[in-house]
Amino acid sequence: MAELDCDVVVLGSGPGGYSAAFRAADLGLRTVLVERYPVLGGVCLNVGCIPSKALLHTAAVMDAAKALGEHGISFGEPKVDLGKLRDFKDKVVGKLTGGLATMAKLRKVTVVQGVGAFTGPNQLAVEGKEKTNVRFSKAIIAAGSQAAKLPFLPEDPRIVDSTGALELKAVPKRMLVIGGGIIGLEMGTVYSTLGTRLDVVEMMDGLMLGADRDLVAVWQKFNAARFDKVMLKSKTTKAEATKEGIRVSVEGQEPKVYDMVLVSVGRAPNGKRIGAEKAGVAVNERGFIPVDTQMRTNVPHIYAIGDIAGNPMLAHKAVHEGHVAAEAAAGQKSHFDARVVPAVAYTDPEIAWVGVTEDEAKKSGLKVGVAKFPWSASGRAIANARSEGFTKLIFDAESHRLLGGGIVGTGAGDLISELALAVEMGADATDIGKTIHPHPTLSESVGMAAEHFEGVCTELLPPRRK
Amino acid sequence: MREVAVPDIGDFKEVEVIEVLVKPGDTIAAEQSLITVESDKATMEIPAPGAGVVKELRIKVGDKVSQGSPILLLEESGAAAPASKTPPAPAAAPAAASSEPMMVKVPDIGEFKDVEVIEVLVKPGDTVVKEQSLITLESDKATMEIPSPAAGVVQEIRIKTGDKVSEGTAILVLKAGAGEAAAPAALAAPVPPVAAAMVVAVTLPPVPMEPREATQSKPHASPSVRKFARELGVDLGRVRGSGPKGRILHGDVQTYVKGALAAVPAPVPAAKGGALPFNLPAWPDVDFAKFGPVEVKPFSRLQKLSGPNLHRNWVSIPHVTQFDEADITDLEAFRKSNTAETEKQGFKLTMLAFLIKACVTALRQHPNFNASLERGGESLVVKKYYNIGVAVDTPEGLVVPVVRDADRKGVFEVARELGEISKLARDKKLKPGDMQGGTFSISSLGGIGGTAFTPIINAPEVAILGVSKSALRPVWDGKAFVPRLMLPLSLSYDHRVIDGAAAARFTAYLASVLGDIRRTLL
Known about the structure:
The structure holds 2 protein chains of 2 kinds. Helices cover 32% and strands 25% of the residues of chain A. Chain A is an alpha/beta fold.
């Protein structure tokens, strides 16, 4: 058994884990990074954010090429070579994970491959090709989450989670997406562009919960043609694997046969799989590890970050938490005090939101003012032939400081950063409106929404004052 | 009436309630969300199976529920309709018609705004009597209860615990008189405005108050300034921003730290955990339960508030306590000879009332005792008014209501007022204004015992008089020991403002006034 001594061990090499490890190494700590798979990068790089974006990009260009028919430019029907598309996706992933391995090497971070579990408050055993015992003075748990399973579904290659869907084995004729959240709808978009007809079943009363309904409504209208059926407030009760396909029963519906079923009902944290109890680290019944603003668990020298430390389960949140944990482990007074964490659905159009939503404001009785700039008034959006979206800013009614906002439209995920920056900086409507946005861009819509809030936007009629 | 239970929510069991979206008294529509539950996979809202009025909640946030767990009692509007068809009892009809529901609002509570509601004492359907406490508010100074302006039945609550209220904020809807069948007509008469009963007609003298940040809004500072402040351990809520629109800049944090270093007051150390000032060793961390059974009793809100203030005063003011004795043999006889008279008028003539008058006389002679240090310690603010604070022990903790303009009041008036404010204090009905503007305080333990003690100065005042139990003592009158009733006095004073000789003169003079109360006339 190999023995390793280090200042800090990081368990898990997803975006949170490798960011923590790299930051710790940059601060001069002897760092060990433990990863169960042979490649670094975790779910995000290997079977999540990145490969799905490679496929979504492909789908978007296909859809855009088709839409050009309206402009008098016609292409033939696309020929899809799934093998080549898979290769492209794998190359994208390979480039990034390879880059990570190099970065780890240059930073002198020791990577140990294998499944890590605590064996004591200062020891972690890694079961890989050989057994390694890592003795640490600080630990950062970044063991992430995994796709939640539905127990009544049979084992069948045609029933997949997001990882299985990304393998892109075939283009099914008919696919059922169970769970109408971001992941299911992103993968649904890819398959639908490749030729699959979609049904969605969702237990709650709306798709992409968390985002304001007006944002989702725009996406839903634009994508109506992709779906045969959107079943809300519906429960999947049974699924049988038959020769023809997966026969799925949804409450109140005739059973239907699908060629593929994508299960995307959320993700469950891995807190109960890492021997936390041996180190004395408290894990709650849902598998999350409670932490303070320094990302410390109940055991002061052990930190937890990313999905395992709580919602929202987003890579960019994990990265910031990873930096905080590494800095705190190095003795710095770092705290996680970001006021907002943006969220993005990379559907087409994209939906992005940050900070206070209108629904939340209503529920909590927060006094807010809302300004919406419809993209039908944006020259650039019209020129792009994509003017279905809008930009919505939510301000504190009294101070006019930005509290949050939502954008639906092409590239919304890139536009939302300005709102996040404005919230962190405490910018008010005038600050945003008086910042010159280049013309003609989609980002103009942010400045104009702010101007509209102050009644000084000349692209729209001034709002009626109550 | 029907009990609404958690419907079939799939395979989820023991899911946590993270939000309750309705409250008793709410009128809800069918399919309206009642509660939000959260499993490890998703959050979901449970909708109402029908329309109606929520009668009673059966769950709270944090409960674990499964299919079939009761959520609430619903009086369905479908069921309510037929019931109302039966003609109401004839006697009840006129009463109901004459009692319009009234909106009860927060009355004048002094200069306080955005005071937090810490307790709602009634619920819809409760019958309340006039002056019954409806809600408890808490400012940074004290808790107070808001009484009902009239008798009646609570129809609807408009606020909840944690809300911030100011004068005029709606509290609840009261159907006046509806609950009192005995005299419906009288109670249905127009109710006097709420404020009238509550307002104490005093104009508050201008007292410098610590500016306080509105805690609900986050400090206006960018991430880099927040990081900088954190490194220095600066609470940005206390930093004044000099940038545009009050933005806190890098330099503002530096200025704040320089100011904090220059100011005398030591930081208030946490009782546990954090490092103590002056390089003291850490507070001993003892597991008391290891040595025998213990019970942890949380402090009341008032105790939590007053503790840090007392600590600040104790460590930041250089205290000296001067002890003396006053011969109150004659004064006590005089007091006793007048008690019958005041009891007829309905109040007690206490020694404290005479003490207040005597102190005012001594303060007139020694104006530096009726003063405050200006911030920065460059000069002394001498006050031309005499508001005497009286420490009152209540079950919730210590409060110090103020007898205003004691110099312009007679002993009877002071005594009567003392009775009133003590009662208000014990009933938790003191308003923050009642505790502001003091210029000198008295803490009397005379009714309990003791020979002397060292009271803590009530900042920003500069002196406080402690009074212990009077006792008959042999006093040498030049020829013989004679029994005299002696009252022990303990005067704590701020040595930055008052020197020892002045304090000795003050207590000696005070003793002479108490020895011959006619001196108050001089």
